[in-house]
């Protein structure tokens, strides 16, 4: 059966201020209920505050599984009321697609757009400040519930209720979950790192970082 899901929610938004220091962030998204254009840098009207680490063609669309909110609410009960679809700054919220069955380089049709999984999301301190939970970003990584990013292969329109379906897979070896397991291994396999770096579609920054780490481990 083809791997697919219904896009339950679509989000985009401008820049808001984080509660602690008033630092600008694009994590605050609004619900989109009408068709929205997905272009090379993501959804029309979506913005990122720090373009050095967010946004761009390799992080054009952020997908976060709705299932993870229950996990987060159990881990951070005092924040549970604020943990709902859209709270992590994602653009797509679905049920059924997770880090375990979505792989690096996977190509998905979403509405009339064509997207490719380019890399996992790396959670940063802004998540901690957004929810006033200093351990949240670390928990994301430990539990490997980070979500992932797409690059846009073909622009198009998407709306809530559209189906997102896998149309091409380049590797059965490296899911998002497998990516993080390898990345955080105490003594990672150099051969595995080189194989991951060679997967078509992996973001160039990660290709470079994996190559540099593999070279260092070979010394």
TrEMBL record:
One Pfam family hit: MOSC
What GO molecular function terms would the record report? Answer: catalytic activity; molybdenum ion binding; pyridoxal phosphate binding
Domain named MOSC: residues:
30-167
- PROSITE patterns for the chain: MOSC
> Cross-referenced InterPro entries, in alphabetical order?
Benzoxazolinone_Detox_Enz, MoCF_Sase_C, Pyrv_Knase-like_insert_dom_sf
Q: What is this protein called?
A: Molybdenum cofactor sulphurase
The species this protein belongs to is Acidomonas methanolica NBRC 104435
**According to the entry, what is the taxonomic lineage of the organism?**
Bacteria, Pseudomonadati, Pseudomonadota, Alphaproteobacteria, Acetobacterales
């Amino acid at each position: 059966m083809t791997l697919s899901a219904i896009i339950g929610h679509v989000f985009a938004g401008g820049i808001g201020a984080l509660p602690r220091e008033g630092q600008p962030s694009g994590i605050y998204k609004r619900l989109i209920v009408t068709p929205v254009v997905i272009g090379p840098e993501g959804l029309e009207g979506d913005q990122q505050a720090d373009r050095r680490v967010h946004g761009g063609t390799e992080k054009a669309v952020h997908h976060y599984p709705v299932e993870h909110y229950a996990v987060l609410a159990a881990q951070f009960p005092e924040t549970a009321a604020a943990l709902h679809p859209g709270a992590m700054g994602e653009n797509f919220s679905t049920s059924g697609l997770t880090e375990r069955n979505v792989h690096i380089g996977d190509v998905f049709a979403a509405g009339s757009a064509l997207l490719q999984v380019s890399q996992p999301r790396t959670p940063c301190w802004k998540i901690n400040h957004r929810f006033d939970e200093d351990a949240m970003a670390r928990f994301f990584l430990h539990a490997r519930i980070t979500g992932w990013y797409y690059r846009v292969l073909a622009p198009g329109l998407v709306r809530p209720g559209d189906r997102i379906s896998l149309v091409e897979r380049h590797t059965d070896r490296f899911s998002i979950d497998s990516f993080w397991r390898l990345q955080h291994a105490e003594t990672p396999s150099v051969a595995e790192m080189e194989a991951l770096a060679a997967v078509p579609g992996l973001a160039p920054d990660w290709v470079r970082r994996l190559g540099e780490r593999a070279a260092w481990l070979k010394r």
